[in-house]
Amino acid sequence: MAFFSNGAPRRTATAPVPADATTAVLDSAHVGDIVGALGTIRQDDTDSGRSRWQRFRMLLAVIGPGLIVMVGDNDAGGMATYAQAGQNYGMALVWTLVLLIPVLYVNQEMVVRLGAVAGVGHARLIFARFGRFWGAFSVGDLFVVDALTIVTEFIGVSMALGYFGLPKWVSVPVAAVLLFGVVAGGSFRRWERFLFTLIAIDIVMFPLAFMVHPSAAATVRGLIPSFPGGLNSTLLLIIVAIVGTTVAPWQLFFQQSNIVDKRITPRWIRYERVDLWVGIVVVMIGAVAIMAATAFGLSPADRGAFSDAGAVAHGLSGHLGTTVGAMFAILLLDASLIGANAVGLATTYTLGDTLGKRHSLHWKMSEAPAFYAGYALLLGAAAAVAFSPDHVLGLLTQGVQALAGVLLPSATVFLVLLCNDRAVLGPWVNTTRQNIVAGIIVWALVLLSLALTAATFFPHLSTASLELGFGAGAVTGLLGGVALAVTRHRGERRGVERTAVELGGLDPDQVEELDSTPLSRSERRSILAADRDAWRTPALETLERPAFSPLRMAGMIALRGYLALAVVLVAVKIVQQIGG
Asked: What is the mean pLDDT for each group of 10 consecutive residues in the chain (580 residues)?
């Protein structure tokens, strides 16, 4: 048997090879040393007794999935959305980015735990725990939106290189071949180093932001929530697009699968959380810089006249010189390549989960043909669609981000359910505080899409009416949360009563007293740490599938039906804009 340079055994079978029959991990490529762009951690290494410098080097080896998934946020669609927000509304929508920081962390931290503990991708868990029906819905959404998203990445490539005079028929095929070549090398480390090189180019955003002479006062005022021009369907669409491009469903699937592919296990979760925070800081700085570039770099006459990111580069060149325009074009090209790579991998990782095929960057093309063929077909189809008429492509870019924002509540609901599944996560399940925050996030996203729906159906709704609707929705969410808490408490009480019977005559209060033996905080932390260190998700086929209560099933079906309607309405809004 031959071996990879990282020590993982090379096999030639076409089906996934179980790495350990007692755990959920399916592919032997997902078990072994962490081989990152900036270092290696042996499979049996720990940080116990290590110096601060040694722990820092371990952090460098772990860094990757969180940083890449966050920077992938600022892709071609993201740059176009932030540029449109800055050009049409100045810095008045900066507050939306601030509110999205906790959403980013809470959502992605949950997939960090799922990936490290379960050792399988997000789609694999959804199919295993909720069945084919819900799995098909979840994956179907992802495939459609991801394919359209990659189209927008190639649009960004053509616009960026078009600024330098390279025609689309050259730039798009060359980009597609480059993206495939980087992934198809059979080396996780080589792929990650390439992505880190692209991320390093983002440093251009700092001189770009400086050269447009931003106003600190206007930026600070943008931190205060406001609705410039009134709360209407056009403003709501751009807000939903900001949400969709900053917190997109593909991120959940990509980061969980990439954590699995990098072989990050529970002992490195706190390092991966740092990786995630580094990525969040980078993506927020980038978003504000792009928004500032158009808010301060273009003339007041351009306000409300956004067309596409390519026009922004030419506009900046005309107002501030070719250097500023070139910087924006370079950032657009860089963002498009990172985004196409990450979104493409998110989709093909998910395809491997769905079809039960190998899906790891550690395998070579001959060892995982379905994985690489799916990636190539996805790039080819998206590149072909990118040759559509320019005016359609410009609106498609915003529409894709809005679709992602509308579909995010559904993806987050599945995520929260998985993170409360004790059979999967054991001692790593969500705490009550995490569930409260996640519930607020899901309901806020639902309210936002409801507002967009109402504004599309009734375009003459006043700002006061929409604000009243948000207030009523907040009260409804609060009452619903209280009802769920009471129901859960009663369920726990019935569980205590059953335990009392099993213990032979003890009343429930005595059982609760026995179960609440006072422990110090350090003792509780020590017990929890020991439980977490020893826990890995068992083989999924050995677990009993959780049953949906009638209330939960009704809620899931209602959410699914509404989101389908909301997707149609986003499409209607985009068609209306195409038609003028």
From this structure: 36 42 79 92 88 93 94 85 90 91 90 93 90 82 82 90 91 93 89 94 90 90 86 79 79 93 93 95 93 88 75 88 92 93 93 88 91 92 80 62 70 87 90 84 76 66 74 75 61 48 50 55 66 81 81 75 72 65
3-state secondary structure 46-65: CCCCCCHHHHHHHHHHHCCH
Buried b (16+ CB within 10 A) or exposed e, 228-267: eeebbbebbbbbbbbbbbbbbbbbbbbbbbbbbbbbbbbe
pTM: 0.84
Rg of the chain taking only CA atoms, in angstroms: 24
Burial of 394 (0-12, 13-18, 19+ CB in 10 A): buried
What is the distance between the alpha carbons of residues 298 and 317, in angstroms, rounded to a whole number?
A: 9
* Cβ(33)–Cβ(43) below 8 Å: yes
Cα–Cα distance for residue pair 475/509, rounded to 1 Å: 34
- Rounded distance between C-alpha atoms, residue 422 and residue 425, angstroms: 5
CA 227 to chain CA centroid, nearest Å:
26
Spatial separation of the C-alpha atoms in residues 86 and 503, rounded to whole Å: 65
Q: DSSP letters of 370-384?
A: HHHHHHHHHHHHHHH
